[in-house]
Fold each of these.
Amino acid sequence: MCTFDIWNIMSTKKSHALVLGASGLVGLHTTKMLLQQNTYDVIYAVSRHGIPLEHERLVQIQADFDSIDYFIEKTPITHIFSCLGSTKKKTPNKKDYIQVDHDYPIKVAKIGQSNGATKFSFVSALGANEKSNNFYMQMKGRVEEDIKALNFEQLYIMRPALITGNRNESRPTERFASGFFRIINPLLRGSLKKYRSIDGKTIAQALVKTAGIDYPGVHTYNTEQIKQLA
């Protein structure tokens, strides 16, 4: 867990990236890739239990929705990468689900913006729509609209279909779906390509690419566009 002494030392640096959900599949890949580059002087990795990484430019912040204010309220931030995503198994209560997937990134976005953040890159989902009858898609759509309303100078929205990759947790349903999509992916052509599954590492590569580009406004990428950006 980081301390204010560490923050004071690192606040003299020029640029700071914050990865929200750093222990997840996409978040951990994103953190590793940012550390391999020199775009940002400090990488703040936010997770509940920490991640198995050490680096001179890495500051780990172990926090959750209720405690994140304490750790970042005075932390200079340039670019926020939001990689949060829960499951029904982990958060069966809809209120808790909304807090993790919606309230948390919005909260961090507002604090980060007040501390200098001008860029926000995050993982949404294919089909996100605040008017959807599907709870999950409706929530993802709400996140998108609420982030847009904050008017970041640059906003990059990744809308992947099924995300595949090796996770630290067991997700039998996703493993089955991943195997199924490996079979049908080649059959999804033309306009259907956006429904192909995509590896979490590829999404992370696309997120990190946004660190090196300067496109004012809102930019949304579906699965195939994410692969092209990566």
Amino acid sequence: MKIIVGLGNPGAEYQHTRHNAGFSFIDHLAEKFSMELRFDKKFQADFVKGEIVQKGLAEDICLFKPMAFMNRSGESLQKFLAYYYSQFFEEDEGNHLIVAHDDLDLSLGKYALHKGKGPKQHNGLTSIYEQLGHKNFWHLRLGVDSRGGERKVPASDYVLMKLQSDEQQLLKQAIEEVAASLFD
């Protein structure tokens, strides 16, 4: 079982922003596996559970997008995990959970997969850490920094800026690469 969470902010005004890189990853996987995300008010999230086949083996997968804004992502995720996976996760929580998120510590188009290690500061991850009580899960860090060393715009404003079309393409390529490495 893999539970893949993508962090972002709901609403049209946040589409194609750097902060929604995690949402973009989930949307890509949903399309790749022909899965349809549905909103559930109880969890304040879009999610889908299903089975995929990779390398001839079937695997259960869950795609999850918290819709309670970034700084409350952990509340949605904790409710969801407690409802569907409480017994399952008592044994080995960190090995089955992947949280995809934007990362200003990585250049746009780069990515990294680390267990228990995220960026220095990220409100969505902070919310998850607080709600789960640990950092022991996989962090899929999607690079979104294309400032080239210039830091005139505060990080909190920069991540909410829309990606230009060439930047969107770089992020899309990174998402496709990491999806292939995880699922092909």
Amino acid sequence: MQTRANRTRQLLLKAAAEAFDDHGYRGTRLQDVVAGRGISKGALYFHFASKERLAAAIVMEQRDLLSRLSSELRDRHPRAIQRLIVLSLRTAGMLQDDPMVRASTRLACESHHIGAAIPPLFDHWTDTVRTLLDEAGTQGDLLPEVDTGLVAEFIIAAIIGLRRTREDAKNEDGIARHVMEMWRLLLPGLAVRAHLPEIMQAIDTYTRQAYRQPCRNGR
């Protein structure tokens, strides 16, 4: 019974994410979530007492997304600045392809329509980015004058802004390309100059492997 209940809950979250992603919080009805899925409204209310609670659950599912990804990438990318850039590209890809991630960010942007139940998604994501920037400073890759809190807020705002302004890029790598260009512009003002070529070379290698794109200028 517990396994069946968990499966039903996940189906409801997936269906709700697709609806919220397409129509937003105010444009989604609970009927839209269960329609054509063989799930009754009673089952929906068993798991989620209201549309607000359903939206909050979707955001909560993604609250620790960046910290989980960072942990997964640590062994392969021990240098925090490289891990952060790869993390940002992975997040951009999920914002294109994963309905749960897309819906969570849209709901977080619409939290003023929803209520206090919505957890602070972007604050958690920003904390992860700031932690990585602080680690990069400890490793000697970051310029000492960098305000890691301010930069972390900018990076999250830029990635989310790209997703919100490029609704037609769900099945393309357009967001990731823009994020990569953002880093090419940011890194000269963040990284220690002597370390910059090595950092960029590592990122170029990752970009080629992940997106099968040639390096800039044929390098």
Amino acid sequence: MIKFLHGSWAYLVMLLFVITIINYVLAYIKNKVFDYSKEFRLASFTLIVFSIQILLGIITWFNSHYFEGIKHGQMGLYMKNSADRLLVMEHPAMMLIAWLLTFYGFNRMKNAMTSKKKYMAIIMLYGLAFLLILMRIPWQNWLK
């Protein structure tokens, strides 16, 4: 159930990243004044939804057969197989890095003094996080 929820919730996460980044890019181009009722809520909602996704992923990882294998000394076997390595190491590590970038981008946006800097913090850091997410999604499993 958690694994299904983790896979399904990912669609919402990706949609929110796209909406947030496009919204901030358009606002930056149009030199809009930062609107806390809209832009702040959108960035914070994206961070919250992504944080839930990370929590679901951590629960999924600890309940997986990979974690059981790691406890029994099979990490070396997983590292030799690229598909296993992606699921055991690369995907979780990259998603945590993406989450940290998102969290850092949100804090940079909150602390920035000008609208341009607020928009640029989200564009750059949420954009980089989204790129990392796209790079390390296990597409062969996800699109089945």
